[in-house]
Amino acid sequence: RGKDDKYKVQMPKLRVAKEYKDKRKSIDDVERNIFKFKKSGEEKSKKMDKEEQFFRETFMYDKEIRVLATATAARSVRSQRRADLPLTAGEQLDVIDAVQGHAVICRNAQGRYGYVLVEHLNFR
């Protein structure tokens, strides 16, 4: 053992520049964020499916969900009941179905469905 230790050459430790370490960490963070984005997309689709199922049960809607038109909310409106869709001014809505009277069934960007009065919408 003594002879082996005698012939070993000790290599100096290379110091890595601090900037390079920081850059390497940021690259790793970006890759991790990509994976988080995919995961949240899956969670979002599950939530939208759940909202659609709730919509079908609540409104007894068995037809195919088809977008008839796109509208913009003219003003912010709070919902009085669960069947109504709360609005914020300037929000984009998909009109799903026209109901008798002054209300239409709409879907917002989060995938939530509900009744909206035609008075509160601007159609393009």
From TrEMBL:
Keywords: Phosphoprotein. It holds the Pfam family hSH3. One of its GO terms (biological process) is T cell receptor signaling pathway. InterPro entries: FYB1/2-like, hSH3, SH3-like_dom_sf. One of its GO terms (cellular component) is plasma membrane. Residues 55-121 form the Helically-extended SH3 domain. SUPFAM superfamilies: SH3-domain. This is FYB2 protein. It comes from Vidua macroura (Pin-tailed whydah). The lineage of its organism: Eukaryota, Metazoa, Chordata, Craniata, Vertebrata.
